[in-house]
């Protein structure tokens, strides 16, 4: 059930109160037998600059099982809460009559027409706020209209979706780059046949280890030396550790071997650990 109401607020300075209408006003739906079936509060739409007072739209939602008798002698009650009014205003009652009920079989279509009519009414009251707009597909709610009516009447987009602007956008397909391991394969053999590779291999052959192991020993020593140098300079071991990381990455890229990469990481951690132990011992 949707209704249009106007909450007048009289003040000496023609301004609306600081307390929003959503905190001071309550709408009640009273059944013909006097039972309160539902309640709602005004929605405060900031662009109106009324703090929820003045002209507004509100409503009640009933499920099919809880809906009151159609065309029943029900009432809408508007009350002001005692915490915010002194004296408390007299409750207002709107007695529903047959003419207040929509007779069309197309309830959603009839509500859409009524909502667009209310947009024209509100345009006169709030001339700077356009609640509807015209598009290539017809008249629909504007951005202001969608924000207001969807909040004041939750679920309205499901009842009359035709008054909401629908935009269809087909995204362009993004060109997919095929990734492979060709660069890794290239870098893995980057030092093959070089003087560095032959030299490390010869040294390794003499002591019965691989050339990659010799690379690891050299890198380990470099990492420790860098940490020692930065520590003795009074810079701490952090700069040396940072440079050591760069050295490890560079050598790992040149060698391109998983086990070597793992060994480099362990070597760097060990070097940093040793320097911390030396530092603590001296402290």
What does this structure look like?
The protein has a four-stranded antiparallel sheet. The longest helix has 25 residues, at 258-282. Helix content is 43%, strand content 14%. By secondary structure, the chain is α+β, with helices and mostly antiparallel strands. It has helices at 21-24, 107-125, 143-152, 156-159, 182-188, 195-207, 211-232, 238-255, 258-282; strands at residues 2-7, 25-30, 36-40, 54-59, 75-80, 92-95, 132-135, 138-141. It has two domains: 2-163, no CATH class; 182-282, no CATH class. It is built from nine helices and eight strands.
Summarize the structure in short.
The mean pLDDT is 81. It contains nine helices and eight strands. The protein has a four-stranded antiparallel beta sheet.
Tell me the β content. 5-15%
The structural domain count equals 2
Categorize the overall geometry. elongated
Instruction: Please report the total strand number as a whole number.
Output: 8
* Structural category: alpha+beta
Oligomer: single chain
Helix and strand run: EHEEEEEHEEHHHHHHH
What is the CA-CA span between the terminal residues?
Answer: 80 Å
Strand count, sense and closure of the main sheet? 4 strands, antiparallel
Radius of gyration, CA atoms, in whole angstroms = 39 Å
Mean pLDDT score, rounded? Answer: 81
Detail the poorly predicted runs.
none
Helical percentage? 40-55%
Strand order of the largest sheet: 3-2-5-6
The number of helical elements comes to: 9
